[in-house]
Amino acid sequence: MKASNLRVGIGYDCHPLVEGRKLVLAGLEIPYERGLEGWSDGDAATHAVIDALCGAGGLGDIGTLFPDSDANYRDISSLVLLRRVGELLRKKGVEVGNVDLAVLAERPRLSAFLPRMREALSGALGVDTSQVTVKAATGNKLGFVGKGEGIAAQAVALVRY
Questions:
Q1: At 96, phi and psi to the nearest 5?
Q2: DSSP character for 31?
Q3: Which domain holds residue 140?
Q4: CA-based angle 150:103:10, to the nearest 5?
Q5: DSSP code string of 49-110
Q6: Coil, helix or strand at residue 20
Q7: Under a CB-based contact definition with an 8 Å cutoff, are residues 153 and 15 in contact?
Q8: 73 in Cβ contact with 43 (< 8 Å)
Q9: Largest alpha-carbon pair distance within the chain?
Q10: pLDDT in tens, 57-101
Q11: How far apart are CA 94 and CA 71, in angstroms?
């Protein structure tokens, strides 16, 4: 494979934690007293992956593809959106090389959920689990993540044309 056939994209998303919402990260409902505010399910982890793949695949960004002005996306599962991105990439002849995701949350502790998050993301993309990595970190009591006010996620994706 020639290096010219490779492209990298980065993605970042964050949402505040609010009462009255389920906490969904990487497609999984995580038991917690608060959830992430958002137009869709608020899944900051999957949103970061979508943006990384969109950047690498030349698709723009999540807001362009799935605008919050469109009622069809209200409360939709972000895994549905990720599946659609995977389909768009395949139509362009783009193959996912790998995705690396870091979820930043002071609480809840996410380590027990990481394998299932990896499976959910790779399943939605139609790739092997070896192509998706999911990690968790805290904010070390610093900033909005460290104070427990919200959750953030960063992702990097490598694709092949």
A1: -75, 125
A2: P
A3: 3-160
A4: 110
A5: HHHHHHHHHT---HHHHS-TT-GGGTT--HHHHHHHHHHHHHHTT-EEEEEEEEEE-SSS--
A6: coil
A7: no
A8: no
A9: 49
A10: 999 999 999 999 999 999 999 999 999 999 999 999 999 999 999
A11: 29
CA dihedral 130, 155, 140, 26 (to 10 degrees): -70
Q: Assess whether pLDDT exceeds 90 at residue 2.
A: no
The pTM for the full model equals 0.96
The pLDDT confidence band at residue 1, using thresholds 50, 70 and 90, is very low
Q: Residue 6 corresponds to which amino acid?
A: L
pLDDT class of 136 with cuts at 50, 70, 90: very high
Q: Structural domain tally of the chain?
A: 1
Can you give the CATH number for the domain in which 95 is found? 3.30.1330.50
| Amino acid present at 109 | R
